[in-house]
Amino acid sequence: MTPVQTVASLHEFVESRLSAVQSALDDHVAGAMGELPSAGADYRNLWQSIGDQFTGGKNLRPSLTLAAYAGLGGEDPDAIVPVAAAMEMLHTAMLVHDDILDHDEVRRGKPNVAGIRRAELTAHEMTDQQIEDHVMAAALLGGDLALSSAYDLISRAPLPAHHRLACLDLITRAIRTTIAGELLDMYADLTDPGAANALLVSELKTATYSCVVPLLAGAQLAGADPTMVGHLEKIGTSVGLSFQLMDDDLGVFGDPAVTGKSVLSDLRAGKRTEMMRLAFHFADANARAVLEAGVGSPDLDEAGAAVVREVLECSGARERARKVARQHMKSARRIALERVSAPLSGYLTELIDSLEERTS
Fold first, then answer.
1. Alpha-carbon span 157 to 153, nearest angstrom
2. Which residues of the chain have pLDDT under 50?
């Protein structure tokens, strides 16, 4: 492999290897579909529904893994592919399980694993409870299959044993940290929205598995020293936090046609975001009453959501949350420019700029 020396060549490497990552994911699913013939069509269909989830995403996690590896001197363009694929597979697992918790059956504008199973059941006469049980089983077990596949992809990767073990440890760290964040997020509805620690939830639930672990996997396989690994951890944490803050904003103010996600589900669920925490903190009595009546109501309609959005805007909560996101991006950009060697520094700053302006 010719060492990458410019930001442009690093982008070219990432783009060229992303197609290999997709092939690795497709091959993994195809192989799994045929490994247990006795399990029948339902087992194959569940794997197929997992494979259907790979398209339409941003490929952020495999891109970070590939960029860190090549940008820090990695020399084997094939060895890093299954590790990058594992990062995307882990993301798929997290999305499938997160959608269970959020009662969502659409992801990226199309049915997720649960939604696919519900559509399959239209040809059967079943009670409502039977349908819900089937849908839940498909999503829960499908997420489990994707989770185990992240380990499987790495364990079979053409890497020295110590590198495989290091990546497996990172996957374990990502899973445990994300579960801790999900738990805090789910249990937060027992606390006052103005007292929720939304930034900690974002760091645990999103930043670690989405940005930190992919960067560290690529860096460690490239032989990065502990100091560089520390810098990348800080960058990944800040980028991940900002990413989640912007995601929370899009979940309320975004365009569903662009994001592929409802702008009502987070409000109906009463999701404890930093924006919502700030709104409850800064809203006056009348505005707080609007929030208390609408946020967390499963019957909230678009008219009611519009009133809630007005409170989020007028209280300054939305702009304050967006400011926090910008501050984290600024911090990540500074560390990348001052502490990370080229061409990875340039790649990361360009990525940060693009994420800051995203609409989906």
1. 6
2. none
